Amino acid sequence: MAKIKTKYVCQECGYETSKWLGKCPECTKWNTFVEEIDQKSSKKEVFIVDKSSSRPININSIETRAEERFSTSINELDRVLGGGIVKGSLVLVGGDPGIGKSTLLIQVSSNVANSGKKVLYISGEESESQIKMRARRLGINSENLYIFAENNISIIESQLESIDPELIILDSIQTVYSPEINSAPGTVSQIKEGTSRFMKISKKMGISTFIVGHVTKEGSLAGPKLLEHMVDTVLYFEGERYNTYRLVRAVKNRFGSTNELGVFEMRDLGLVELENPSKILIAEKPKDVAGSLIISTVEGTRPMLLELQALVSPTSFGIPKRTATGVDYNRVSLLLAVLEKRVGLQIQNQDVYINIVGGIKINEPSMDLGIVLAVASSFRNIPVDEHIAVTGEVGLTGEIRGISFIEKRIAECKKLGFKKIVIPRTNYDVVKDTKGIEIWPVDNLRQAINIVLGGNK
Fold first, then answer.
1. Does the domain formed by 279-454 have CATH 3.30.230.10?
2. Alpha-carbon distance 380 to 107, whole Å?
3. 326 is in an annotated binding site
4. Domain topology for 69-275
5. CA dist., res. 374 & res. 144, Å (int)
6. 443 labeled binding residue
C-alpha cells in the first residue's frame, strides 16, 4: 500500500510546507498550519497543444457589448454594484457575524424572484426550516425562490440543470466542500476549490452568483487573498452590532466604481435602505454645544453630511489619552500635533476624544478640517454655528489643501438647509453656483479657526 503524503498549509495565506511550523514565514501569523493530504499525482500528464485553438487577436477587431444587468430592487445595493447585478458575475460579500449579510441576501433573492427570475438560495449553515422561519419573519414568499441546504459541491452542481436559476446565493463559502479533496471544509484548499467551481458555473452557464465569506477577528476575509482576486466584485458589510445602521462598501468592482457606499438601517422586518442618510445622521445634532459640527464628505459618488464630535478635557494621568471612533487614530494624532505647532493650542496635557456619529467609518482626507475645528471648539468651549458645514484637507504646515467633488458637497449642504460652508481657497475658483449658501474660503488653519470660532471673516 502506497504511503499517503501529507503537507501543511497556512490557513491565512495558503503557504505550503512539508513540516509543521509555529510561525508562517509568508504572512508571519502564528499557529495557522493545518495538515492536509497532498493531492499531487505521481503520474505525469502529457498535454497536446492545439495551435489553432487559441491565438492573439488585434484589439481593434474585438467586438464589445454592454453588460446585461438586472436590478435587485434595492437602490442602495444597485448603486454599490454599479447599476445592478451583471449577468454571469461572481460577487463576494464579507462581514462580521450577525451584521446582516444573510438578511440582505434573502431580501435580494425575494426581490429578484418576484421579478420573474429563478433564484437558488444555497445554505451550508442553516436547514430549510430555519431559512423558512427567517423568510416568514421578513414577509418573503415567492414561487421562483428555491432553498437548498447542502454543502457538497458535486451535489449542488447536479441540481443546477434541473432548476436552471438565474441567480445563486451561497451562504457561505467556508461551509461547502469538494469530496475530491481530503481536507475539512473551511481550509484553504476547500475554499480555493469551491470558489473556482462556482466561478466556472458563473461564467460558463451565465448565472450571477453571490458568495458569503466569513471574516477573521482582524476584519479581513478568512482564507487566502486569492479569493478576492478570483471574484468580480467584493462587498464589505460594516457597522457595529449594537448600532442600527449598516454600510455596504465596494472595495473591488470590475463592472463599476469602487468605494461606493450603501447605507441601510436594521429593523424588525429586515434591512431598510436610507436614500438620504445625511438628513437622518445629522437630525439629532445638539445646538449650542462646543465640540460638535457638521463635515461634508464624499463616499464614492455620494456626498454625505456627518456630525463630528470632539471632547477635550484635562487629563487625570501623566500621559493624556487619545481616542478616535470612526476616524483613523494616527491621522488624529497628526492633526493634534499640527494644531499645537501651527496654532499654539496647548493640548499636550488634555485628553482628546473624537467620534463620528452613527457608527460610520470615514477615511477621506476632507474631514481633517472638521477634526481640528471640533477640537478647537471643545478646547475653547465655543460652540460652532449650527448652520455651518466644513470640508478641507489639512497639511503639516497648517495649510488647507484642495479636495475633490466640491460642487457635489455644496449642493448637498444647500439641499439640507445649511447657510454657510468653509472650503479650501483653491476650490473657490471652480465653484459656479453660489446662490442660497455663503462660501467662506480659507488658506490656513489659523484663519479657519478665527472665522468659525471668532466670526472674523
1. yes
2. 49
3. no
4. Rossmann fold (3.40.50)
5. 53
6. no
392 marked among binding-site residues: no
Residue carrying the nine cell digits 477573521 = 216
| pLDDT given for residue 47 in this prediction | 52
Question: Any binding-site annotation on 277?
Answer: no
* Residue 101 assigned as binding residue: yes
At 238, the amino acid letter reads: E
Q: At what angle do helices 329-338 and 368-380 cross, to 10 degrees?
A: 60
Which CA distances in Å does 89 have to 67, 85, 233, 366, 451? 10, 7, 8, 34, 51
> Domain ranges in the chain?
6-37, 69-275, 279-454
Task: Note the pLDDT tens digit of each residue in 214-239.
Answer: 876 665 666 666 788 889 999 988 87
Q: Is 124 annotated as a binding residue?
A: no
User: What does the angle CA 78 – CA 225 – CA 243 come to, to the nearest 5 degrees?
Assistant: 50
d(CA 18, CA 33) in angstroms, rounded, equals 11
Q: What is the pLDDT of residues 363-411, one digit of tens each?
A: 889 999 999 999 999 999 999 999 999 999 999 999 999 999 999 999 9
Q: Is 179 within any annotated ligand binding site? A: no
Which sign, positive or negative, has the C-alpha torsion 157, 163, 165, 170?
Answer: negative
Joined together, the cell numbers standing for residue 146 give: 428555491
29 is in an annotated binding site: no
